[in-house]
Structures are given as C-alpha cells and as structure tokens.
Amino acid sequence: MHIAETNRKNSSYWLGLNQFADITHEEFKINYLGLKPGLTKMGAETRTPTAFRYAEVVNLPWAVDWRYKGAVTPVKNQGKCGSCWAFSSVAAVEGINQIVTGKLVSLSEQELMDCDTTFDHGCGGGIMDFAFAFIMGNQGIHTDEDYPYLMEEGYCRERQVHRRVVTITGYEDVPENSEISLLKALAHQPVSVGIAAGSRDFQFYKGGVFEGVCSSELDHALTAVGYGSSYGQDYIVMKNSWGKNWGEQGYVRIKRGTGKPEGVCGIYTMASYPVKNATLWGS
After folding, report:
1. What's the rounded mean pLDDT across residues 197-209?
2. How far apart, in whole angstroms, are the C-alpha atoms of residue 99 and residue 231?
3. Domain Peptidase C1A papain C-terminal: where (predicted)?
4. Where are the domains of the chain?
5. Number of alpha carbons in the 13 Å side-chain half-sphere of residue 274
6. Which top CATH class is 1-275?
7. Which of 102, 32, 92, 29 is nearest to 69 (CA)?
8. In whole numbers, what is the pLDDT of the chain averaged over residues?
C-alpha cells in the first residue's frame, strides 16, 4: 500500500510514511493497540462516577502545554506490544509527580507489564484505572532506570530496597462526554485518555489537527499534555508511545470544539488522572 505525504481533502491534517508502512492494517491493529475497556466488566472496579476535584474550576487559561512546564518526559516507544495503557498511566504519574515535587522522573512501564497482572494483561492490553490502583497498592512504582522496558512481558521483580519509587495517593475519572471537564483537568495536570485509534488515518498520521476517520471503539491509550489553538483550529495535544517517527515528533493534536459529546475518536469517554497529595512528597 502506498501512502503519500499529503493532506486529506479539505482537512486540517496530513498523512505520511512511518514505521508502520511495511505492515498490513490488521497487523497494526493487532500489535500496537492495547486499550481494553471491557476489562472493567471482569475487574473489581467499574467506571462509576468518582469525585472530580476540578468540577468548580472557572477561568481556564486559553492554552496549556505541560511539555514546556517540565512535566513531560521524552516520547517513548512501546514497540510491538499492546502496552499503551501502561505508557499512558506512567506518563500521567510522571506529570503529577513533577507538578507536586518539582522533579521529573522517568518511570517504569515494565513494572506494570510484569506485576500489574490481576486484571491488566501486559502486551495483551489493559486500562489506566487498574494501573493507577496497582501503583497505589504497590506503594509506588520504580524508575525506568531501575526497571527498564523490554518491549515484552517479563517476570515480576520484587520491590528493590533502597531504590527510589514514585507514589500516588489516588486517581479520579473525568466525567464522560464532557469536553470542558477534560480541559479543566488538563489545565492542572496531564491526563490519561482512551481513544479509537484503529484507523488507517491514525496509523499514518503525520501532522496537523486530526479530525479524521476513527475506529468504532476505544482501542488505544494516549496522554493529554496540553491544549491550544492554531489558525482557528482548537485542539488537544496528546503524547503517544509509538516513538518520535510517528506524528508530530511522537505527538498528535486532536481537534476539539466539534460539538460531539464523545469528541473526535471518543477522547471524552474514558479519561482519568492520578492524584498525589502535596503533603506526601516521597518521590
């Protein structure tokens, strides 16, 4: 299949060649998408309404970008593994940890892959709320340096004494089908977001404000790290985990303000964020 680097007709984004150009679309969906919303039906938790600490926020800034505030680590690469849920969760925890402590620490997706196995399934997929719950119950998560990523599932390693871990104190879900709620949360911290990414347009996204064809259900996880506007196009900027050769150096801008309750590709239907109390500083 030949993909030219060109704009979609009458659209604000364009497609181009990337690392997925030499595989079929089915191979792409099988190997690089790993969000499994259906796990909530089997797990101990469901996405019932939770406290939303940002409900009463007013006067939002016109733009936010946590990359420039020092709360986002460099783009990572999940490889041929459906571990997007782990990368999304870790990026959100990295963000709130930096906001509270002032320290940006790259954390371990591999620990979630190996140890968070009660309901999540490593390369077989998972969801972010279960990952946050695991980090709480595990009394923290190791750094990426101490527990590096393998691009495959491994054996769970016992907590390494004298090694630094990052803790959180809870997590909350963003109210579903509410763009303003996601913006309120995003104005205060990076947010884990589910998205329907299993389309050819998303596979070969190269740049611009994406508003294209989506798959029919949530199947991938990203981390929203900001929002803004460019040439009259309002967007939310999201960090992906497919390396820097995909999209805009590993990021995608998703169009907002479309009037769709669920948002483009369903981005307002499954968003959540970790909570870290300022009184608990242990990194």
Report:
1. 97
2. 30
3. 60-275
4. 1-275
5. 31
6. alpha beta
7. 102
8. 92
Give the Cα separation of 242 and 130 in Å (integer): 22
Dist CA 198 CA 226 (whole Å): 23
Active site residues: 84, 220, 240
Q: Which residue has the tokens 């998972």?
A: 126
- For 271, the token pair is 């968003």
The pLDDT value recorded for residue 193 is 98
If we measure between CA atoms, which residue out of 215, 177, 171 comes closest to residue 191?
171
Q: Quick check: helix, strand or coil at residue 237?
A: strand
Region 11-19: mean pLDDT is: 95
Contact assessment for residue 138 and residue 118, using Cβ atoms and an 8 Å cutoff: no
Q: Tokens 């849920």 label which residue?
A: 85
| DSSP, res 81 | S
Q: What is the mean pLDDT of residues 67-87?
A: 98
Spatial neighbors of 98 by CB under 8 A, at least 6 apart, are: 70, 71, 104, 105
